[in-house]
Amino acid sequence: KAHVSNTLSRKIINTETLEDEIEKVETHQFGPYKIRTSEVFLSTPLSLAMVNLKPVVPGHVLIIPRRVALRFQDLSHEEVADIWWVSAEIWS
What pTM did the predictor assign? Predict the structure, then answer.
């Protein structure tokens, strides 16, 4: 007969903290908006691409950096290059 530890059953789980952690994993921040991971169709370690909810023209997508930056000029050279690489991958 296998011995089952009761360690997990004795551990108190703070559900608010757990929900916050799940929210962080499943969403990305873009300005004041939270983007669900399920809305992302292409991702790299530096960028995310998703379909725009109100596209200007058919096929309009939004490519954002993973790191929150106040301005485009605040992005690193690597982040800017990655955004352009993602753009090229989408349309190639």
Answer: 0.66
